[in-house]
Amino acid sequence: MTGTLVLLSGGQDSATALFWARRAITEGRLTKPLVALSFDYGQTHKVELECARELAACASAQECRMDVTSVMAIGGVASGLMNREIDVSDLSNYDSELPASFLPGRNLIMLTLAFTYAAINDYRDIVAGMCEEDYSGYPDCRSQALRPLETACQAGLNRPIRLHLPILNLTKAETWRLAHSLGRTDTIIHDTNTCYRGARDAPYAWGYGCDQCAACHVRAKGYKLALELGYFS
Predict the structure, then answer these.
(1) How many CA atoms within 13 Å lie on the side-chain side of 14?
(2) Where are the chain's structural domains?
(3) CB-based contacts of 195: which residues, under 8 Å, 6+ apart?
(4) Across-strand partners of 39?
(5) How many angstroms separate the CA atoms of 42 and 162, rounded?
(6) Is this structure's pTM higher than 0.90?
(7) CATH class of 4-175
(8) Is the peptide bond before 166 cis (omega within 30 degrees of 0)?
(9) The dihedral of CA 17, 126, 102, 43: what is its sign?
(10) pLDDT tens digit string along 173-214?
(11) pLDDT tens digits, residue range 49-108?
(12) What does the longest C-alpha to C-alpha distance in the chain come to?
């Protein structure tokens, strides 16, 4: 088994994970080929997917895209990421303790598909940019969900595929520091998009976005803190 599969949405976290994987291959901790897997799940905008294509090329990674719109439609009715009638700034009608940006089953389904794709292609490693300490508290970004899924996929597919989560326990400021250590600060600022509304009109110091949604707020806050802590020095 050889090869590294990275889940790449086109946002800040997955892009940082992509370049972390590229560095790990250079250092011999992971193996070639480097493959970037993106998902078209019927999101309300395609800006992230466009960024994902550019990022894959920048990292010299093979690009693969899966259309899982019909599958994610199951939970899409409850998420502002797929349902334009739901404001992503509201609370979720699925779980009132979560934001409306939560898409039930998204990470679980995508990771399961990634493990299957890796098994079919005989890849040894999967890298993903889920973060436990993100502002949202998404339950499918927690190690309690991700590690058991890794074990189940290894057993169910009969393949020792390893899941790497390089930013799982990082704050957003620490994720900025990691990107900087990889020499990719400018790439994250200019070539990624995390904004729920997909705004690309006016660039801020931290990148593109509407500067109003929760995703933009946490990205900007993390950038400011990273500056204050000297992470870009």
Answers:
(1) 27
(2) 4-175
(3) 47, 208, 209, 210, 213, 215, 216
(4) 66
(5) 28
(6) yes
(7) alpha beta
(8) no
(9) positive
(10) 999 999 999 999 999 999 999 999 999 987 899 999 999 998
(11) 999 999 999 999 999 999 999 999 999 999 999 999 999 889 999 999 998 999 999 999
(12) 48
